[in-house]
Amino acid sequence: MTDTPVIGVLALQGDVREHLIALASADAVARPVRRPEELAEVDGLVIPGGESTTMSKLAVLFGMLEPLRERVAAGMPVYGTCAGMILLADKILDPRSGQETVGGIDMIVRRNAFGRQNESFEAAVEVDGVPGGPVDGVFIRAPWVESVGARAEVVAVHGGHIVAVRQGNALATSFHPELTGDHRVHALFTDMVRAVG
Predict the structure, then answer these.
(1) Which residues is 137 bridged to in the sheet?
(2) Which residues pair with 146 in a beta bridge?
(3) Going by fewer Cβ within 10 Å, which terminus of the chain is more open, N or C?
(4) Handedness of CA 61, 114, 48, 106 (dihedral sign)
């Protein structure tokens, strides 16, 4: 791989455009991914925010769920924000009927834990591995992590709740760094992809 990895953004639903911009600013080649053949061409993948139940159903409909599980299990770097965090959890505390996950991080996630849409907020969050002070996190109907297993590392906490976790090549945040113009978390993820090279 060159120093310019190709990173996809799962483009089934959610804030795809903002992630493409953030990845490009972190010196990655960013492209939307909707089909298994597009997934096969990327070095890493971002699973954006959106509605986790809808995304899970669309992943099944588009034939993406199994290929996603296989690539993540095989070590492809992956980063999930908000709903993406829920999809990367090995277990959801209160899943909707028929909701499935990709898995990859040994954590239990609670959906909409920080409240409804009108309770959305911004907060400064210290993220291990991100230099330069706290990142500005946007929390929109955000989940939090109830607990992590031995293989998962907590990299950020807000208000006493786990809001960012890393396990090997997988990273997940409760919040949306792509909505702030601060692209340091995307730079961290791009470096993770480069390191797999």
Answers:
(1) 123
(2) none
(3) C
(4) negative
What's the gap between Cα 89 and its chain centre?
10
Distances (CA, A) of 61 to 17, 35, 45, 159: 22, 10, 19, 37
Answer yes or no: are the C-beta atoms of 147 and 129 closer than 8 Å: no
Residue 60 sits at the vertex; the CA angle it makes with 55 and 65, to the nearest 5 degrees, is: 85
| Residue 96 one-letter amino acid | R
| Closest among 143, 138, 165 to 152, alpha carbons compared | 165
b/e 94-120 (16+ beta carbons within 10 angstroms → b): ebeeebbbbbbbbbebbbbbbeeeeee
CA quadruple 136, 33, 171, 119: dihedral sign: positive
Q: What's the whole-number mean pLDDT along residues 130-153? A: 95
Residue 99 pLDDT greater than 90, yes or no: no
Task: Tell me if 23 sits within 8 A of 186, measured CB to CB.
Answer: yes
Q: Which residues are designated catalytic?
A: 82, 176, 178
Three-class DSSP category at 28: coil
Query: pTM score, two decimals?
Result: 0.95
Residue 23's φ and ψ, nearest 5 degrees, are: -70, -40
Alpha carbon distance 187, 114 (integer Å): 26
